[in-house]
Amino acid sequence: MWIKEINLKNYRNYNSIETNFSPKLNIFVGQNAQGKTNFLEAIYFLSLTRSHRTRSDKELIKFGEKELMVSGVINRVNGKIPLEINLSDKGRTTKVNHLKQSKLSDYIGTMTVVLFAPEDLQLVKGAPSLRRKFIDIDLGQIKSIYLSDLSNYNHTLKQRNTYLKTHKKIDFNFLSVLDEQLVNYGSRVIEHRLNFINDLSTEAKKHHLKISNQTETLRVSYLPSIKYDDQKNIQENFLSQLQKNHQRDIFKKSTGIGPHRDDLEFFINEINASFGSQGQHRSLILSLKLAELELIKSASGDYPILLLDDVMSELDHFRQTKLLESISENVQAFITTTSLEHLTSLPKEFQLFTIKQGQIV
């Protein structure tokens, strides 16, 4: 898969831009605050209908304007597909092949991306919410049913928490109804995640062995907040533990267990990676990103588009080489950088763009 062209209108600091790309490597050079990351963000937005930098859609619309439009054409193994997203204060509309999509899960997965940004280096030692977001974004692109189950779970969770917060006298019959709905969707979310993390761990282990010259073994472990002895008993154990926590949840006015509390752990040579060096963390994240490429390819038949946002300067010569070797033949990649001096082992052919004050050359 590769994106052939993209059109931006009133996106961040861009008025109106139309650009064509190489199916291989594309490099965006420019000083800070000129719009390099905004451009990569727009590609990410076209894929996932959201930004990786802000939760506020309003921030994406150019100052003084009321709406934005991002559109593009992607090439997949089965042909060209036009995509379009319009965003205003009235909401957003998404189109695939010029047809409006009624559900987010019908749109996401059409164009897949893997993003490697500086904040990903916090994945090992950062908050659990970062690791849950990592799972949700990648698994959501691979399995549309996961997005549906997760959306239903979050909707039920919000209902349950609102009920706990706003009612002094709890109707346990009504709470039991919410429990059953939460367990139904939540158990499916846990099972999706379990299978994904098993596959991710297997694939990332292969890449990490290569990057570490066969000296380090990586393992990714999923930590659901629900305790169970067999995957077949997740739903039963979830409901039992939720019921046991009723008094705690009523006192705290929130739901204490479920997929919204899940986490990941990373181990290098069976030692928790949080105790590792910065270099080990970089290799670990790089291994995860390369594993994501392969898992999405396996699920969809197309390699995703790789977005490298100002991270090449964070990688030494050896890790840059391993990354570029992995993507040079099969993957369309976009790199942002302030200078080509940060890049080593570049292939002979690539397309170079200079960005200055929201203009692209």
UniProtKB/TrEMBL annotation:
<keyword id="KW-0742">SOS response</keyword>
<dbReference type="InterPro" id="IPR003395">
    <property type="entry name" value="RecF/RecN/SMC_N"/>
</dbReference>
<dbReference type="InterPro" id="IPR042174">
    <property type="entry name" value="RecF_2"/>
</dbReference>
<keyword id="KW-0547">Nucleotide-binding</keyword>
<keyword id="KW-0238">DNA-binding</keyword>
<keyword id="KW-0227">DNA damage</keyword>
<keyword id="KW-0067">ATP-binding</keyword>
<dbReference type="InterPro" id="IPR001238">
    <property type="entry name" value="DNA-binding_RecF"/>
</dbReference>
<dbReference type="GO" id="GO:0000731">
    <property type="term" value="P:DNA synthesis involved in DNA repair"/>
</dbReference>
<dbReference type="GO" id="GO:0003697">
    <property type="term" value="F:single-stranded DNA binding"/>
</dbReference>
<keyword id="KW-0963">Cytoplasm</keyword>
<dbReference type="InterPro" id="IPR027417">
    <property type="entry name" value="P-loop_NTPase"/>
</dbReference>
<comment type="function">
    <text>The RecF protein is involved in DNA metabolism; it is required for DNA replication and normal SOS inducibility. RecF binds preferentially to single-stranded, linear DNA. It also seems to bind ATP.</text>
</comment>
<keyword id="KW-0234">DNA repair</keyword>
<dbReference type="GO" id="GO:0005737">
    <property type="term" value="C:cytoplasm"/>
</dbReference>
<keyword id="KW-0235">DNA replication</keyword>
<dbReference type="Pfam" id="PF02463">
    <property type="entry name" value="SMC_N"/>
</dbReference>
<comment type="similarity">
    <text>Belongs to the RecF family.</text>
</comment>
<feature type="binding site">
    <location>
        <begin position="30"/>
        <end position="37"/>
    </location>
    <ligand>
        <name>ATP</name>
    </ligand>
</feature>
<dbReference type="GO" id="GO:0006260">
    <property type="term" value="P:DNA replication"/>
</dbReference>
<protein>
    <recommendedName>
        <fullName>DNA replication and repair protein RecF</fullName>
    </recommendedName>
</protein>
<dbReference type="GO" id="GO:0006302">
    <property type="term" value="P:double-strand break repair"/>
</dbReference>
<feature type="domain" description="RecF/RecN/SMC N-terminal">
    <location>
        <begin position="3"/>
        <end position="357"/>
    </location>
</feature>
<dbReference type="InterPro" id="IPR018078">
    <property type="entry name" value="DNA-binding_RecF_CS"/>
</dbReference>
<dbReference type="GO" id="GO:0005524">
    <property type="term" value="F:ATP binding"/>
</dbReference>
<dbReference type="GO" id="GO:0009432">
    <property type="term" value="P:SOS response"/>
</dbReference>
